[in-house]
């Protein structure tokens, strides 16, 4: 299902990205509309797959997850059975916040959030005991300069 997104939809999406916990009345006020039309648009965007699940963003460091590693993985195995096993291993590990399959010299990159280097080593040892990889390089993030879940909605062409 293709959803047509107009200027009002973009404003609603921007408000939801900024703070999905605000009331429907507040969103309607901010986008210059009333509650019912805004609710109908949100419902349409949900049904169309534009809006996914709602979550809260937690502060990892405040909760003691002080180490963020970017893990570069090269593999010599590319068969379906290996991939299924690898993907299951990633899905089963809550430390993995993001996983991407890449084009180029590196096959996968993972964003792994853990309490410290020892916790990363535990993660690493568990991963390599489950699935064969050719090479693993871990890069410790020294400082998070920018992190956002906001999409650049101004780049969406209006239908």
Summarize the structure.
The protein has helices at residues 7-18, 24-31, 35-47, 80-91, 117-130; strands at 67-74, 96-101, 108-114, 135-140. By secondary structure, the chain is of the alpha+beta class.
Note down, in words, how this protein is organized:
One of its GO terms (molecular function) is sequence-specific DNA binding. One of its GO terms (biological process) is regulation of DNA-templated transcription. Keywords: DNA-binding, Transcription, Transcription regulation. The chain has about 160 residues and is α+β, with helices and mostly antiparallel strands. It has two domains: about 5-55, Arc Repressor Mutant, subunit A (Orthogonal Bundle); about 60-140, Alpha-Beta Plaits. The chain is built from five helices and four strands. It has helices at about 5-20, 25-30, 35-45, 80-90, 115-130; strands at about 65-75, 95-100, 110-115, 135-140. The protein has a four-stranded antiparallel sheet with strand order 2-3-1-4. α1 (about 5-20) packs across α2 (about 25-30) and α2 (about 25-30) crosses α3. The model has no long low-confidence stretch (mean pLDDT about 95).
């Amino acid at each position: 299902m293709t959803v047509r997104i107009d200027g009002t939809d973009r404003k609603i999406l921007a408000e939801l990205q900024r703070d999905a916990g605000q009331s429907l009345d507040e969103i309607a006020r901010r986008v210059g509309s009333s509650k019912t039309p805004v609710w109908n648009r949100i419902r349409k965007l949900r049904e169309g797959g534009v809006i996914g699940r709602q979550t809260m963003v937690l502060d990892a460091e405040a909760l003691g997850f002080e180490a963020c590693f970017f893990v570069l993985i090269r593999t010599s195995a590319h068969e379906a059975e290996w991939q299924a096993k690898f993907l299951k291993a990633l899905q089963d590990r809550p430390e993995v916040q993001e996983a991407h399959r890449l084009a180029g010299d590196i096959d996968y990159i993972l964003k792994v959030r853990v309490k410290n280097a020892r916790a990363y080593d535990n993660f690493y040892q568990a991963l390599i005991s489950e699935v064969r990889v050719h090479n693993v390089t871990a890069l410790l993030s020294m400082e998070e300069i920018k992190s956002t879940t906001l999409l650049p909605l101004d780049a969406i062409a209006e239908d």
